[in-house]
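Troubleshooting entry. Yesterday's outputs looked truncated, so today I'm pasting the complete records for two proteins to confirm everything comes through intact. If either block looks cut off, that's the bug. Protein one:
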Amino acid sequence: MPAASHPAQIPAQLPRVVVLATGGTIAGSAGSAASSAHYQAATVPVGALLQAVPPLQGVARVEAEQVAQIDSKDMSFALWSALAARIAYWTAQPDVAGIVITHGTDTLEETAMFLHLTQPCPIPVVLTAAMRPSTSLSADGPLNLLDAVRVAAHADARGKGVLVVINQQIHAGRDATKAHTSAVNAFVSPSGGPLGFVQDDYVRFQRAPLPAIAPLPVPSAWPMVEIVGSYAEPSRVVVDALAAAGVRGIVVAAAGNGSVHEVLGGALADAARQGVAVVRASRTGAGHVALPASARAAVGGFLSALDLNPYKARVLLLLLLAADPSLGADPVRLQARLAAF
């Protein structure tokens, strides 16, 4: 049975929700209110974002912290580590009911995956964003922020792990991915659809996310893991250069069900013999890449990211290799770890 919730009754003492701001389009501004494509991201401070959404005062006691102010295309490992540290700090405060992270849409799916894999989430951790800047005539950020706070403060969100709330939908952080360049409904969960939705003060979860996993540690040193694509007549130049540069892992944005061009496959096989972990993900945007048929196939046919897209697969491979460098030389054990998440 789906876990249903009912319209919230505003309690005498509102829950405490902390907003961690990182910039992005939700904090963007444009010279013209008619423009939603040409603007400067990460210009509006989090205090101004909150002031633009008066209904927040009836949902939660909201506090804010400006962790960063960047366009999310420039996301870094250092900022991921900083976010993890601030989440750890605020989740340790006994009266904090939930955390909201405002983020740019370009790399939100990668940050959501990183947090999904590293945060124990005793309270809800909810990412939100906007497809249009705050100065747009049709800005979607204010409602997304309000909905994210509603979910973070809601009892039914506990135990659901990292969530993404955007366009009135609730997605699992592991699943959410950006699938459109500009539409407000840009985010989808290809494998199973949204977990639920938000409509005004009504929050409903229609399905549960995958069971919780033991979190991976946040790396103190990050291995080099890169993405290459398979397409018509590729060369082996990029793979050979990466192997020579000391790359530890390569995720292949492969065609269809993990198909890799023979030229690229030869280069990747050479890299694998040098100890580089090679993982296939599909460039199609949905579906599973079939697991190798046997341990021998895993060694010769590279590994599977299952239903993870190349960008989420890279985050997982980064964290796995950082936590256990020996996995790169043990493809059978690495495949088992990839499948566990």
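Protein two, checking that the full record survives here as well:
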Amino acid sequence: MRIGLAGVGRIGAGHAETLRGLGAVEEVVLADADPVRARRVADKLGVRAAGAVEDLFTAGLDALVVAAPTAAHAALVTRAVAADLPVFCEKPLAADLDGTVQLMAEIAGTGVPVQVGLQRRFDPGHIAAREAVRSGSLGWVHTVRSCTLDPAPPPAEYLPTSGGLFRDCSVHDFDAVRFVTGREVVRVTATGANRGDAFFAEAGDIDTGAALLTLDDGTIALVSAARYNAAGYDVRLEVLGSKDSVVAGLDDRTPVTPAGPGLRPAGPPHTGFLERFAEAYAAELRAFVEVAAGRADNPCPPGDCLEALYVAEAAEVSRAENRPVDIEEVRR
């Protein structure tokens, strides 16, 4: 199988290395808006670089991985589908909700697989939590708690195009809640704060946020996010049931120190999402190769990405208007 990869930034370069090591992949062809960067990464990995992203579509590919900047996602996905190329696209599929809905309308009914990069679905802890819910060993679930805490904020120039904390960051938690519980979110109440750098408020964003989700069976989910967690990168999901409870992401590198006696982290905390989810990133690409080859069902279709985005959109509206928002209010 010959797979093209558009975009060789942080995630893209990692994807290229993963693809190169997969036995089913005979050739990896890289391209980037910066051809020099593409050649540099290609030379390092011993793979081929195309002259430009445009050249990927005449390279005889069997599938395409999109890890380019968000603004390029929709056009690349649309073109890949039109060329009958299975495509893996990092989230989001498009720059905003309307663009996502439009893209999905354009590719609907084509039969070409489009897998979205929501890597927590491939994290062993989240998978185990999902299995615990499905097995009934937890009893009925009454509460889910999920957090994403960054050790340091992103650059100021990233914020205006990020979509905001809920759409950019917490959307992973929203998808994880749906994935683990198997339930849908029906209502969101959200709030946010700015106590860090001024550039968050200047961009209309927040540096800390929280969302209370009501699921369709009455389960309550609490999602929190922050850009300032100097203790380290922290992603956890707890599922609390009537019989038992489980947590994903709690290990000897979790950057949480007991206030009194208790177990303390034995190793250094994860520095960021690429390290914390290294295994999950590799697993989702292995899954994509199977999907592209027609040997497996799509584990993360665009519809799941859209549902998580609806939750993020509702959270933004709730924060702005200081009220609960039903998902149906934002659904297109």
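Both blocks look complete. Sanity check on protein two: Residues 2-112 form a domain with the Rossmann fold fold (CATH 3.40.50.720).
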